[in-house]
Amino acid sequence: MHASKKLLALAIAAATSHSTLLYAQDNAQDDQWEGDAALEEVVVTGSRIQRSTFDTPSPTSVIGKEAIKMSGELNLNEVLSTMPQFGAGFDATSGSYSFGNSGLNALDLRDLGVKRTLTLVNGHRPVQVTADDNTMVSEIGMIPSELVERVEVLTGGASAVYGADAVAGVVNFILRDDYEGISLRSQVGESEAGGGANQSITLTLGENFADGRGNFAASVDYFKEKPLAYRDRKSAAGRTRYLPNPGDTGPNDGIKDYIIHNNITYPDFNIDGNAFAVWNAAAGDVDWFQLDGSEASLRTPATSIVNGWMVTDGSGYDPNAYNFARGPYERLNTYFRGHYDISDSTRIIADLTYSKTESYDEIDPDFIWADWHQVSDLEANGIAIPEGVQQVLADYGDSWLKIPYTFDEAGPRWHTNDREYVAATVNLTGEFDNGWNWDTYLATGFTSADLEQGNKLRYDRIDTGTFQLIGPCEETSSCASFSPFAPASQEVLDYVMTRHTTTTDVEQHTFAANLSGDLFALPAGSVMFSTGLETRYESLDYQPSELWQSGVLSSQQTSIDNASRNVHEVYAELLVPLLREAPLAQSVEFEAAVRGAEYSTESANFTSWKTGLNWAFNDSVRFRTVLSKAVRAPQLGEMFLGTSIGYSDLTDPCDVLEIDGGPDDGRRKANCQALGIEDGWDSNLKGRRGRVISEGNDQLKEEEATTFTAGLVFTPTFVEGLNVSVDYFDIDMMDMIVRFGAGTNLAMCVDSETINNDFCAQVVREDNGDVYSVRDTYVNADAARRRGVDLELDYSFSLEDTLGLPGDLRLNLLGTRLIESSYTNTVAGESSTTDYVGQYRTPEWKADFATTYSVADLTMRLTTKFTEGGPIDLDGNPERYENHVIRDSLYYNLWTGYQFTESTEGYFGVNNLTDESWRDHPYTSYGSANYSLLGRYFYAGVTVTF
């Protein structure tokens, strides 16, 4: 309480004497080359000083509305996530088996996670939505792409300017203002191979009133995307996997241990109809039979089964029968904005945003895991054994059979995510007679999400060990007849299958005030000072269905009952001109900012700061550098996540097929033996999903990051239109809040030097070595670091002046050379750092190169997108995997537009012009990020203004 009063008193004291540095973001000048790196005098993200993109103290990239349109993407996430500065984030591929993430669009700067990228709209935090793990992220799908004037991407911490969460940087979406007239834009597109079709239509209108003192604008934006199913892309996803090489003769024989197979199916998992298996002693595995009524026929021989659960002859179940590579998605965005000049020095601005999105995803039907049963036990439970099954057992001389059961008659397990977003803001800005500026900002908003899941099996209504219906029907002696050898009747399905709904509500209310102006004059210019305060309330209410909380489904989830907190912050920012028009110093400016924050969920307050130097040697060369401390407070979901019990794909490192993996010093085998597991052991996780227990941690503290950037900007006066910047960035994080993941906990338990470590404490094994459960929770880990160099080049020139040819040309290059992407882990008091640069998920080089040609009414742009490939495991034995190096991702996008009349423009484009595909490798066959499954994609659109 005392700390809050001190923060408030400081802010009020500062507010009485100073005004804001914030210039109206709406004063940006339009430019025919707008986008990428336009040289406009605007308020650029990361500083409250107005300047052009290449004059900013921090590395900042600007993507304009024309560049967005020429990308052909109708979802802003697709435009940004493939840029060199970004990791995968959340996109259209994030839904399967992560139901809460379907339909989410969230950005991931520097591959530090979506929670460490601060997303802003018009310089302010939007209300957030929750991901599958109840952490809050900024959903950029609710931002109407047609209304975006530009997007500003700033690297490095900006917590001193904008508050917590800006550890990796800031992405600021600036929306259009002062719109007059009516415009209608529509676009459609579809892939050449089918799937992923989308369409949009946007209506925007605006009108000035009161002799130009006011303006009102509105926009309605509708977007719909159809699904892309894995089954519609040959060899995609689960059909392409690594299999043990039958020609392998042992370690260090020069023969790959694992080879790639691209026609994989499953022998028992969700087979259509009814199936059973009998042990084939000669082959050392089971033969699978398919039932057709009472007749049984061999479906999958044991000789076609590898590793107990993968089939090589195509006779099993198609793993891609249901899952989507890109789920269907639909959104409606509406935006209203108005301003009115109350006087010559005071303006009121108000806006209202409403967004509704719907997404759908599905996976294979629910099932009962295959298990061994004896005929006598089945008959004792009243289950008749079909003649065909009896004949097979007689032929094998056996009375045991393995039976799975898939409720395929019910159809796939499905889920829908309906999200609703409402936000309103009122902004009052003004200028005092002495030229000092002030503004106040009030915002309120909420998001509501309904996650409905269907065709889920109720384990309180069927005994999966005996196939007997149980529960309420037992009490009334009305249980329907059910047999694992026959299709389930509708009566059975109605009884054992269910649907349920989980709701999540997020609220956010913000008040901010800013004052700034010139303090005094120095020989080099005026010293500028800004200060302000912000107070914010946010809450999270997560309510799984009663069924989900009860534990009668395949997983269990508990609620977060309206967890909330208050945040109070004050800041001050200073700009001091040190030199002007001096030798080798056309101008030298020093910047500093400090921000204090108090979170009601934290036991201590924290401070972030920033210092920067901007040194222009002359008109052509400028040096810029920023050193800052950035912070991220733990989220409500990270602290108060209830206990979640579910199942996930896990690989047991002690399994006979995994024991030779891990570090090449053999520690994995030694540690597994220390756990009591002998050589040649078959894990219970082989072909099954493992039990994972997740929960929050209310003892978390904030993350801290020291961020440093330094670069040169070259704008030569002797080459008109050329701008080049080279910037080094270094983000060094401490106390990073992470969940290692159940799979990592399981592996690190035996890949550490000894089993006396924190990871083994999270793994529970039964006496026979089987993995019973793996715990996964949030912790403050040691450190992570990202270092690299960004290169940006922008050059526009007249072909008439240079080559005597018609038209104008613009070249724009964005590239990132990653130097370090490391994580430091401490186990048993010993720290070890692993650098992932060069691995295919962490490429050394990523680059976008755009060439734009314009002549008269015709404009064309060719964009080249490059992501360097690399090995799938930097430390692994290269003999272990065939094709262990992923090839580069290189593809081209072409856009062509024509201005038919003053009011009508049409355009046509082709993305992935040469139809590149990466489905031939298990690690890229799922189609995420820069390895898309869409293939060649065509689109066309038209814009009409009235």
What does this structure look like?
The chain is mainly β. 9% of the residues lie in helices and 48% in strands. The protein contains 13 helices and 53 strands. The strands form 13 sheets. The protein has a 22-stranded antiparallel barrel. Strand 10 and strand 11 form a beta hairpin. It is globular, with a radius of gyration of 30 Å. The two termini are 57 Å apart. The N terminus is likely disordered.
Average pLDDT: 88
Strand segment count: 53
Low-confidence stretches: 1-42, 49-54
Largest β sheet strand count, sense and barrel closure: 22 strands, antiparallel, barrel
Cα end-to-end separation: 57 Å
Helix content: under 10%
Percent of sequence in beta strands: over 45%
Alpha-beta content class: mainly beta
Please tell me how large the radius of gyration is: 30 Å
How many helices does DSSP assign?
A: 13
The 3D shape can be described as globular
Overview in brief:
The protein is mainly beta. 9% of the residues lie in helices and 48% in strands.
